[in-house]
From TrEMBL:
UniProt keyword annotation of Ribonucleoprotein present: yes
Species of provenance: Amorphochlora amoebiformis
BP GO terms, sorted: translation
Pfam family, one: Ribosomal_S5_C
Example GO molecular function: RNA binding
Domain of life of the organism encoding this protein: Eukaryota
Protein name, per record: Small ribosomal subunit protein uS5
Entry keywords, A to Z: Nucleomorph, Ribonucleoprotein, Ribosomal protein
Length: 271
């Protein structure tokens, strides 16, 4: 409207009209988002998700408690955490991981680089940080974050790594004596155009991998393995994420050790 009467209106009037239009659009968006959220909760998809979470709560006895009670329950029942990692139900609180894995956790800076973005005012430089967390006993977490301040990026990357903290499946090469030293089976992960295969190796061979792959695998607790890489491995952040995905998929092949012991039952009894 103000374009037609551009000659008569002043700059202050035009600015006030723009502000009012912005406020009206914001109000419309808020009303639309509230109605959309209510309709989504009533949909069949969200009802099924609620049912799944109810089943999980019954199985693991997860209820809404204050923070202190949650910490005490998790510290006393460490087996439940391994079951949660096995079911891909992560701990979505940084404080829990700090308490449970406080002494054994190690934080490793894998890569730090500067990233640019072109804007109207010029180039905007940021720091991108990649961090891996592990306890050398089959638990790994990866976090990547970029921000204008280096310390903000570092702290937020550590938080993301703790939230992505999961368990991997380790195994043996022929001899089952001692602690597990390799992966239980061959695994492969893909991110972007990069594909990385991790192959189990005999005891004493070491980790045969590049620098970034070595940093991720060594923290997880795997001491002996071979690696193969395909694609543009120059993009180092993609290679790091591909190795992390390969370690996560170690539970994709379930060996007989994980199978449940079940008695012979009729099919009618299961129904």
């Amino acid at each position: 409207m103000y374009k037609k009467f551009k000659g008569t209106l002043k700059k202050n009037d035009i600015a006030s009209i723009k502000k009012t239009k912005k406020m009206e659009n914001i109000k419309k968006k808020i009303i639309f988002s509230k109605n959309l959220f209510k309709n989504m909760l009533k949909s069949k998809y969200f009802i099924n998700i609620r049912r799944k979470y109810k089943k999980i709560n019954k199985k693991f006895k997860l209820k809404v408690y204050p923070r202190e009670e949650i910490y005490n329950n998790i510290i006393n029942n460490f087996d439940n955490i391994n079951e949660m990692f096995f079911r891909f139900i992560g701990l979505k609180m940084n404080h829990l991981i700090d308490i449970v894995f406080s002494n054994s956790l190690t934080i490793k800076k894998v890569k730090i680089s500067t990233v640019t973005r072109q804007t109207r005012s010029g180039r905007q430089f940021r720091k991108k940080v990649c961090i891996v967390i592990g306890d050398f006993r089959g638990h790994v977490g990866l976090g990547i974050k970029s921000s204008l301040n280096y310390y903000e990026a570092l702290n937020s990357a550590i938080k993301r790594a703790k939230l992505n903290f999961t368990r991997i499946k380790r195994g043996f090469w022929e001899d089952t004596s001692g602690r597990p030293h390799t992966l239980a089976s061959r695994c492969s992960g893909k991110f972007g155009s990069v594909i990385i295969n991790i192959i189990p190796a005999p005891r004493g061979k070491g980790i045969k991998a590049a620098r970034y792959q070595y940093d991720v695998i060594s923290v997880s607790g795997v001491h002996d393995c071979y690696t193969k890489s395909f694609g543009s491995t120059k993009s180092s952040f993609n290679t790091i994420q591909a190795t992390y995905k390969a370690l996560l998929l170690s539970y994709s092949f379930n060996s007989p050790d994980i199978w449940r012991i079940t008695t012979n039952k009729n099919f009618s009894d299961l129904i």
